[in-house]
Amino acid sequence: AQSVTQLGSHVSVSEGALVLLRCNYSSSVPPYLFWYVQYPNQGLQLLLKYTTGATLVKGINGFEAEFKKSETSFHLTKPSAHMSDAAEYFCAVSVVTSGSRLTFGEGTQLTVNP
Amino acid sequence: DAGVIQSPRHEVTEMGQEVTLRCKPISGHDYLFWYRQTMMRGLELLIYFNNNVPIDDSGMPEDRFSAKMPNASFSTLKIQPSEPRDSAVYFCASSFGRASGDNFGSGTRLTVV
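Predict the joint structure of the above. Result:
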């Protein structure tokens, strides 16, 4: 079975600083990987995804993530944090052999300080 | 595209009452998912459908929970009887295939008192 580990349940950065949210996955077959963002009292919104092809994927709001098979990682980055980036971020994995259901990490709450 | 539509947005009910949550997926999507989110347990998949057929209901907590998808444009999640520990935000999501990611609705916040 696949799994996802998000390192750090809370991350705090200053406005303008680099955002780095860590995600490691476990899967015995090639995975699909996703990052979602959840703002208060809202549903999850897809930020970006990796399925096949280019390992560096760009998403909305200036975020990007790089699939590193050797490290089983899919870390989310943004060069310069904005106050509006404050939210909870979820990494998720799916594999065809599990019926392609998404398995979510526990989430990372991002705080952006002025 | 209106996105995934859930109703109601908020539901407060008394313990023992029946609760029905509703979902309209994005037109053309062939997968539909019901999730539950709580502080303690995070985001849990309860059940999902493919082409209106339930595929995996292993996440449904107990027999008090049931879900149906009578057609491609509508699904319900029913809890009967409801209990205070069912209080959570319930999300419906849909997707076309599995590589596109799930599109989430805004959720139903259920409070059972």
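The first strand of chain B starts at residue 5 and ends at 7.
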